[in-house]
Amino acid sequence: xxxxxxxxxxxxxxxxxxxxxxxxxxxxxxxxxxxxxxxxxxxxxxxxxxxxxxxxxxxxxxxxxxxxxxxxxxxxxxxxxxxxxxxxxxxxxxxxxxxxxxxxxxxxxxxxxxxxxxxxxxxxxxxxxxxxxxxxxxxxxxxxxxxxxxxxxxxxxxxxxxxxxxxxxxxxxxxxxxxxxxxxxxxxxxxxxxxxxxxxxxxxxxxxxxxxxxxxxxxxxxxxxxxxxxxxxxxxxxxxxxxxxxxxxxxxxxxxxxxxxxxxxxxxxxxxxxxxxxxxxxxxxxxxxxxxxxxxxxxxxxxxxxxxxxxxxxxxxxxxxxxxxxxxxxxxxxxxxxxxxxxxxxxxxxxxxx
Amino acid sequence: xxxxxxxxxxxxxxxxxxxxxxxxxxxxxxxxxxxxxxxxxxxxxxxxxxxxxxxxxxxxxxxxxxxxxxxxxxxxxxxxxxxxxxxxxxxxxxxxxxxxxxxxxxxxxxxxxxxxxxxxxxxxxxxxxxxxxxxxxxxxxxxxxxxxxxxxxxxxxxxxxxxxxxxxxxxxxxxxxxxxxxxxxxxxxxxxxxxxxxxxxxxxxxxxxxxxxxxxxxxxxxxxxxxxxxxxxxxxxxxxxxxxxxxxxx
Lengths: 354, 250
Ligand SMILES: Nc1ncnc2c1ncn2[C@@H]1O[C@H](COP(=O)(O)OP(=O)(O)OP(=O)(O)O)[C@@H](O)[C@H]1O
Ligand SMILES: [Mg+2]
Hints:
The complex is a heterodimer of chains A (354) and B (250). Chain A is 72% helix and 3% strand. Chain A is mainly alpha-helical and 354 residues long. In chain A, helix 2 (47-65) packs across helix 10 (253-275), helix 4 packs antiparallel against helix 5 (124-145) and helix 7 (207-229) crosses helix 8 (231-241). The longest helix of chain A is centred in the first third of the chain and has 32 residues, at 9-40. The radius of gyration of chain A is 21 Å and the shape is globular. The mean pLDDT of chain A is 89. Chain B is of the alpha/beta class and 250 residues long. Chain B has two domains: 1-10 and 18-97 and 170-180 and 200-250, Rossmann fold (3-Layer(aba) Sandwich), CATH 3.40.50; 106-169, no CATH class. Chain B has ten helices and ten strands. Chain B has helices at residues 5-8, 60-68, 90-97, 113-118, 130-136, 138-142, 153-165, 183-198, 210-216, 241-248; strands spanning 22-31, 34-44, 49-53, 73-80, 83-84, 98-101, 171-175, 202-207, 219-224, 227-233. In chain B, a hairpin with a 2-residue loop joins strand 1 (22-31) and strand 2. The longest helix of chain B is centred in the C-terminal third of the chain and has 16 residues, at 183-198. The model of chain B is unreliable at 1-16 (pLDDT under 50). The A-B interface holds A 148, 150-152, 154, 231, 234-235, 237-238, 240-242, 244-253 and B 68-72, 87-92, 94-95, 100, 102, 106, 108-111, 115, 118-121, 123, 164, 167. Magnesium ion (MG) is lined by residues 60-61, 103, 175 of chain B.
């Protein structure tokens, strides 16, 4: 045992590790936000709720279907990503296309179905899920058989609308989960393969935490690689710059956009599954985190892929160090950094000034 | 003003008398509330190079945008190989075999030159290979790794043309490819268009510079206030030069 600046090394490295863990979640979540913002031009305020859904889906898979952690790691992002795609198809895309009739059909049918189902005395959360499903079917039928509409896709709706829309979605999602599961939190165990830890000499490293950091870095790296180095990524980057022209080359840009939203949401859900064994599974877990993640995004610069990853990890570490040297400021340090960055470089550290 | 009849009646049979590859009838288009095209009608035969000439703001760019389907609201009829495209989304129109080079060139800053070149998907067999495009525009090969928008204006134009040659599109829509370029580059683009014509491409070329248009085109449509007001076959251009000066206000 030795000390650094009068701090025991184990405490220092312990906090740094905690910072790195938090940073892993900041990085994954702000990466998803950056990808979504780039292509859809919306600030996805539902990101925290989707992260929470990832954790809950893992919990449900385990408790209702006996499906464990490793499958949940794959299934939860897919399921929550599909949910995100429904959200995009029924609300975000209609809003961006300035053709919201579909959304009205969806909402009105859902509400009517909800009234009937409540009257029948079905469990409210299950009833909610069923009525949303009925709404989706109605909206899809409307799309198929209702008046045709050729979307242009080159008019950009103000960010504020997307922000408010997804914020509302987040409140609804969190409300449904709170109603069903309360706020006290549900336990989710560490998978047996990752229990225990390593004594590194200068500190003790729990295996699961090491795994989270490694998995997060890997996911961020793969995402960066796909976007920056592959053909698919070239489509994404081009469509971020000029969706109309990419579409005029024969590329199905609306599909690309929807899948990208699904991917970004899936990334949030993956973070949620990774978080489940560390933090308890709680309807509010995303609401608390997302505020910090937005600060990270502002610091890194909206829409920068690499910037969001680096900033995420770095700010996690900054937070950890603050816990060691000046614990009173640890909850606010990220916001202090945010204010400073906004004053000096309003576009963010990695952002391009408009 | 010349024949208003041209705007409503189908344009005269094309120079070669073949069935048109592209037939435009009473095309109208809007940007939001503002009505910009007021019944454009013209034909393009397979293998032809046809220009749209007209003053600034006449509606030439809007016409190309309507043909490829990237305009808010359009009405009338545009058929390509006999198929009606007026209600299709632009991606489906492109997949019929149209390649579009926008006036602003549309080179992507976040893509390298090579990525820009290979971005448009292949939609039909028989497009150029990368090697053939490099032969046509050797500059692109040298700069393949640079950022797309770091190219000079002329190189960006070559890239904008080169990338649609790969796709197998048979009808090329070129919006002022010589705008703002040095004379040697203009000549190179002229030679390229002639070469593409020999290879059997059909081209709709928007031009302000009719002296340049004269060197490559078969026929010229004069556009004014969102209508085709006249058609001049290239061999008759010199005889109609006074009239053309009047149209273009030069
Ligand atoms: N995005 C737009 N929104 C509203 N009006 C537009 C828009 N783009 C063009 N217009 C208007 O439509 C008309 C036709 O424009 P268009 O760009 O088609 O002209 P053009 O013949 O290509 O001119 P130029 O030779 O200058 O390129 C003009 O009056 C122009 O002001
Ligand atoms: Mg123009």
